[in-house]
Every structure is written in structure tokens, then in C-alpha cells.
Amino acid sequence: MKYSSGIVALCLIASVLGSQIRFQSWNLRYDSKPDSISVAETIASLNATVPYDSEITYYTPSSEVAWSSRRIGVANEFAFNRPDVFCVQEALKRQVYDLAELLPDYAWVGVGRDDGKEAGEYEAIFYRKNSIKLIDWETFWLSDTPFEPSKYPDAGSYRSATVAHLGSKFNNFTAICTHWDDRSDRQRQLAASLLRYRGAYEAETTNAPIITGEQDMLSINRTFESQYKSQLSETFVWKDVLKETPVQNRMGHYATFNGFYDIGNTQAFGRIDFVMAGSNGGWEMSRYKVGEVFYDHGVQLSDHRPCVADVTINKIKK
Ligand SMILES: *[C@@H]1O[C@H](CO)[C@@H](O)[C@H](O)[C@H]1NC(C)=O
Ligand SMILES: *[C@@H]1O[C@H](CO)[C@@H](O)[C@H](O)[C@H]1NC(C)=O
Ligand SMILES: *[C@@H]1O[C@H](CO)[C@@H](O)[C@H](O)[C@H]1NC(C)=O
């Protein structure tokens, strides 16, 4: 696999029985220009005047602006999509708490990856409180010591995965939110190995059919190996749900990364954010969309575009 910048989001939807779930994954770009402006202050500063057409410069040249100027748009993107579950990557504590404040219909789980508490970026999973119930959740690290906050030797950053077991009235499923290293290809191979192994375990606990796998794995931490042992370890694979979506129901962009581009400069573009589902089956893709982050007022909401997937969760055949 090739990664132009190595920023990868991967999420699982496994299953038991039920209906359609809307799922969204979005790398929010960490708060690299922090300030102390509150959510209330940002809302108070918004201009309620709707401009005349002649007053607008469409696609105003732009670059990265502070999170405080992006967060209302980011929250509204989630609010309009109404996902049942959404994953964010790169969100610092303040960003997670701002979204919780702006989106009171959702609860969330996750930890800062640098200390397992509040330091560093969160791979947080939000779920809609009136439709989704949290069963349990945990975080593991994409390193040789996955049970503690840790960094793979040649990785640029600490890298982790948040696993949530979620349920609704009709179905249970597992969501995994993760973000791989941008520097170390070896770290990404290890991350793939750990997630494939863990995915197989998740698949087996739903009593799924076996499907032939594709890739050899790196050796992984022995404790992790024995804790998540399953009969699917050799065969389970993750499937890119875009490829599984009926062609007439695919919508939006190809690239998920735009690097805070200006019109005409697409050099950094790449497809590096993914929604994936387990080869154990029990799901069917309805629709998939890579959305937009650059609107007429010239503020780019993130340097990644949001991925939205409508997935029908089926009863698993036994
Ligand atoms: C609000 O927007 C209108 C229309 O674009 C503009 O004329 C006005 O100057 C803006 N007000 C402020 C305080 O920015
Ligand atoms: C596996 O990871 C745990 C903690 O995450 C660590 O204590 C243990 O030493 C690791 N095992 C090996 C063989 O590296
Ligand atoms: C979902 O998980 C909960 C908690 O483990 C369990 O009690 C419930 O029976 C599960 N529901 C289904 C439909 O499997």
C-alpha cells in the first residue's frame, strides 16, 4: 500500500443484526494555532448579515486558520450529516470538548494518545445518545507494547486505536478509530498487522464466516497475540467500503487530503482516509461520500475532507 502522507483513518463496522447506520470519519487537523476564544465568543462574533451576491469573492484564497474559526463549521458538518457514529482524528482535548459542547446529542470516548489521558491527539469516537448505546471501549497503541502509551521506535508520533463496542435497539457493532504514522512505513505495517489481528478477533466474537486473506503480517506483541487469538487470524481482511458501494451510490471527491489547498494547487491531494469493514461480512454498503471542506467564505474547515458511509448492518449467517 502507498500513502502519500501516511495519515490514515480506519474504522470497522462489524455486526449482529439490524438496519442502516450512518458513519462518518474525519481528520480535523490538530489545533495548531491555539487561542483562548470560547465557543460562546465565536458564536457571538458570527456575522448574521447574508451578503449580496456582488459582495462575495467566491473561493477566497485561503490557508489554515485557527480551530476557533473552524469549529462551528466542523460541528455543523456533523450536525447536517447526522451520523449515528463518528470518528475524529488529530483532535486535541480542546477540540473534542468543543464538539461535545456544540453537539449535545452525542457522547464520546477516547484518550489523548501521548499519555493515555489528556495529552496529545485523540482518536475519539462519538455516538448519538438516543440511538446508540455504549457497551464498553478501550484504547491500544500501535507499537510493540500495545497495552501502554508508547511510540514505535522510528515513528514520528505516538499512534493508537480506540475500540468501542456499540449497540442499538436492533444491533451491536464494533467501531475502531485509528490514525497511522506519517513517517515510518514499518510502523504502518505493524499498525496494519495489529488491526488485522484485532479485527479477526472481533469478527470471531460475532461468529462470522471465514474469507480468504491477502497479506502476511509482521510479528506482533505476544501478549496481544494471545489475548486476541482467533481462528480468523490468518484469513480476516479489512475491506475498503468505497469499493463495496454500488457505483451509482458513490458521491463526492476522490482525494480525502487537500493540505489546505488554494484553487489550482492540488499537489498535496491524496486518498489517505478510509472507512473499512471486516471481511467477516454482515454488512452491506448503501452510500459513500467524500465531502467538502472549502466553502465560499474562504475558511477551510480542515486539511482533510470528511468520509460519510451509510452501512446496512445485516444479521450474520451462521
Ligand atoms: C457583515 O457582513 C456584511 C455583508 O457581507 C458586511 O457588509 C459587513 O461589513 C459585515 N459586518 C462585520 C461586522 O464584519
Ligand atoms: C507486550 O506489551 C506489554 C505492554 O504493552 C509489555 O509489558 C510486554 O513486555 C510486551 N511483550 C513483548 C514480548 O515485547
Ligand atoms: C449487545 O451487547 C449487549 C452487551 O454485551 C448484550 O447484552 C446484547 O444481548 C447484545 N445484543 C445483541 C443483539 O446481540
UniProtKB/TrEMBL annotation:
Q: Which Gene3D superfamilies match?
A: Endonuclease/exonuclease/phosphatase (3.60.10.10)
Keyword Ligase set for record: no
Q: GO molecular function of the protein, one example?
A: endonuclease activity
InterPro entries recorded for this chain?
Endo/exonu/phosph_ase_sf (IPR036691)
Sorted keywords for this record are:
Endonuclease, Hydrolase, Nuclease, Signal
Residues spanning the signal sequence: 1-18
Q: Does the keyword Aminoacyl-tRNA synthetase apply?
A: no
Name the chain's protein. Answer: Endonuclease/exonuclease/phosphatase
Q: Which organism is it from?
A: Lipomyces tetrasporus
